[in-house]
Structures are given as C-alpha cells and as structure tokens.
Design a protein that fits this description.
Order of helices and strands: HHHEEEHHHHHH
Strand order of the largest sheet: 1-3-2
Bound molecules: zinc ion
Number of domains: 2
Length: 253
C-alpha cells in the first residue's frame, strides 16, 4: 500500500516536471516574439505607434462611450451598410468593415477620450502591440462634438464617410503596411505614411465625398477645398503636390 502511494507520488512528480518544462518552453518561445513585436512597434513613427491613452485622458465614462457607440454610431453604420440605395463605394466599405468586426479580424473599440494628436480625429485604425491585433478605435467625445455642430443628415454622412475612410486604409495594407514602415529611417517612414494617407483621402474624395456632396451632403469646407485642389492635379492622388499635404501628423486620420 505504501509502495503504491509512493509510486503515485513519483508519477505526480514526473507530471509536474513535464508540465513545468512545457510551460517554460512556451514562455521561452514566446519571448523573442514579444520582443520582435515590441521592436517593430517602437520603430514606428509617432503617428502610427499604438495609442497610449490612459484613464486620466478619459473625458467621459467608458460605459457611456460604449453606450454611445451602440445607440448612436452602430445604427448609422448598419443603416448605410444595409441600404441598397446608398452609394456603392461607401456601402461596400461599410459591409466589409462590419464583416471584419463580426469575424473578429478587427476589434471595435469605443474610446472615452480624444485622440492625443488632434481633437477632430473621429476614428483610427490601430494595433494592439501585445496581441498584434488590429483595432478600430472610435473617439467618442470627438464624434459627439460633430453631432452637436451639424444637422442630423450631415452628421450621419460624416460618421459613415469616416468609417469608410478607415476601411480604405485597411484595404491599402493595414498591418502589413505598418510592418513596411517600421525599420525605415524617419524620412522614408514619413514619406510612406504621407503616401498612404494621400491615397486614402484621394479615394475618399473621388469615390465618396464628391458623389455624396452632389446628393446634398455638406462636408467640411476644408475637404471640399482639398477636392478642388485634387481635381486641378487631374485627380492623381500620387502627385507630389497632393502628397505633400499629408506630411503633417495631424493630417493622419
Ligand atoms: Zn486616413
């Protein structure tokens, strides 16, 4: 009987040793991965580094931000995605974005704070450096500001266009794009970022903003002006005279 108990103890010790070994190997294998991700993230220019927003930056309760997204933003999102009368270039982006959220390729986050680089930023595609997860961060206080400044129609179009614009960034590469930017020198990285933003805004203006404005939407005057400028450049959003407008980080949306 004693012998059997001793054998059982020996088996338990062996199991514990095997489990400890497996756990240790797992952590050892994951360590270089984490530091690789950290290295990639820290070599990115400030504009695309993961958001460092702390609870002290919050200007509203996180639960209220979440409720606002559920009650105000999502009904607009769904209405535009489901309306087959809607502009195809806009609607198809919202459908794709909703599919990415539903399939968990994208984490949709209600942020109870403003974007640190600019209070007019409505949303941003971002990355979780730990999980390397793609996020769509919605800056709820900034969207509430737009709601107060505009009539309902203009506000809803604004939200829908902002969502479509973020989807255009994802179409242009998203995470692999950032990997391409990382490790470049500052000047090269800024050039890639400016080209990415210039193309995203070019497509937003040509495919969505102008047709919606023709249907009665009143976009921000600065985007109408930008649209005129782009037209003068033959709608070529790769033109250096267009790209130069996007070197400033506060132009990265
Ligand atoms: Zn953008």
């Amino acid at each position: 009987m004693k012998q059997r108990r001793r054998n059982r103890l020996a088996v338990l010790v062996v199991i514990a040793a095997v489990v400890s070994f497996v756990v240790a190997v797992h952590y050892y294998n994951n360590r270089p991965m984490e530091s690789k991700v950290h290295k990639l993230q820290s070599s990115l220019p400030r504009e695309v580094q993961p958001l460092r927003i702390r609870p002290t930056d919050y200007v509203m309760a996180p639960e209220d931000a979440k409720l606002y997204v559920d009650n105000v933003i999502n009904p607009i999102f769904l209405r535009y995605a489901n309306n087959n009368q809607e502009l195809p270039a806009l609607r198809s982006r919202l459908i794709k974005l909703a599919q990415m959220i539903n399939s968990k390729q994208l984490v949709y986050e209600a942020m109870p704070a403003y974007y640190p680089l600019g209070k007019t930023f409505l949303m941003k595609v971002d990355y979780d450096p730990q999980k390397f997860q793609v996020l769509l961060v919605v800056f709820v206080p900034a969207i509430k500001d737009v709601q107060q400044q505009k009539n309902q129609r203009d506000f809803e179009d604004n939200v829908a266009v902002a969502l479509a614009h973020e989807m255009i960034h994802l179409e242009q590469g998203g995470q692999p794009f950032l990997a391409k930017v990382a490790g470049r020198n500052d000047l090269e990285a800024k050039k890639l970022l400016a080209q990415d933003e210039a193309a995203a805004w070019g497509k937003t203006i040509i495919e969505i903003l102008r047709p919606l404005a023709e249907q009665g939407w009143n976009p921000e005057p600065k985007w109408l002006d930008a649209g005129e400028k782009l037209k003068m450049l033959g709608d070529n959003y790769q033109h250096p005279a267009w790209v130069i407008n996007f070197y400033n980080p506060d132009r990265h949306h």
